[in-house]
């Protein structure tokens, strides 16, 4: 599957990442989930291995190979801790791309180079306590002040928000306008007036830190503007397709992880004198799960192919995100059923897989918003 998309170099890369995940991530995820954060050094380690720069230009230390990053997301999602994958993903797939697309040479030199090495960690701050899906309604506001800006407001649910060195913030610069009044700012988290107000405890994604941020008379220089004033919404949209594709890739891998575990368990667990796999109710459940996973994988690879060819396939990406993220919840739920009582405990990986999967239909644009996007393409 996916042979029409990936090349031998990607197969080699997949093997390398898989070995790394098995040796350096999987043995630690239980402890990281318990601690509600993976060690910050993981960024540095992955930077040393060259894993953080796959989609970035070679001149900044990257590989300029978006498919390699796709492989990385698939393999990270097999680690059994979506929170760990999410922390890395927020840095490489949603925060740094904004700098790749819209940064000045100076911003790229400073933030991309260190970000690709894992020496600095980024976050993307769009969502606010009063608005998520409706990005145009954000209230964090910047007023021009001499050669800089003064920002007041807050953000919530920000992945890496508790530990990031810098955050790409969506901020209103024209209150009278909706989408057309948003500007992106690239802000160091040690700026006076920047405060991480609390860490948020969650149902799943526990190994990633998720934070609420507040900005009080936070003065930033003029060169903190990322891209063009009042073009922030269009800039954010530029990377939505990639963010959603990475979530689809993760959802397919997450579902595969749950399927593999459930299949192995069904062949081992004996009830009424035979492995439960021998009951048609169970084997048909597994057949449905496998079919849904392959459907999701193919839809995702098709959208990825269109994206790689240079388009912005909004419909196909929204379809892939909608289908795979909902599918991952269904598949992990069925996997839990196959594990019976053990599935409901923390002694097997399925309870966490289901908790982690539940974020998919919410984060990066909800399933309802994906349906809106798909419907609009037919209007
Ligand atoms: C663990 C986690 C990590 C996150 N990481 C980040 C991050 O790094 N950066 C960031 O900026 N955000 C992040 N988010 C926020 C996430 O993107 C939002 O939660 C998501 O976009 C939904 O916004 P909301 O929570 O405000 O829900 P709302 O927009 O308030 O929606 C509530 C419900 O109403 C529905 N709804 C809203 N509008 C419509 C409509 N037009 N039609 C039909 N139904 C509608 C939604 O689908 C949903 O079911 C994260 C969230 C979580 C939980």
Structural class: alpha+beta
Q: In which range does the helix fraction lie?
A: 40-55%
Instruction: Enumerate how many helices there are, as a single number.
Output: 11
CATH class group of the largest domain: Mainly Alpha
Radius of gyration: 21 Å
Pattern of helices and strands: HHHHHHEEEEEEEEHEEHHHH
Distinct small-molecule ligands in the complex: flavin-adenine dinucleotide
Strand order of the largest sheet: 1-4-5-8
Number of domains: 3
The CATH architecture of the largest domain can be given as: Up-down Bundle
**Average pLDDT over all residues:** 97
Overall number of strands: 10
Question: What's the end-to-end separation, in Å?
Answer: 33 Å
The shape is globular
CATH topology of the largest domain: Butyryl-CoA Dehydrogenase, subunit A, domain 3
Describe the oligomeric state of these chains in a short phrase: single chain
Which percent range describes the beta-strand content?
15-25%
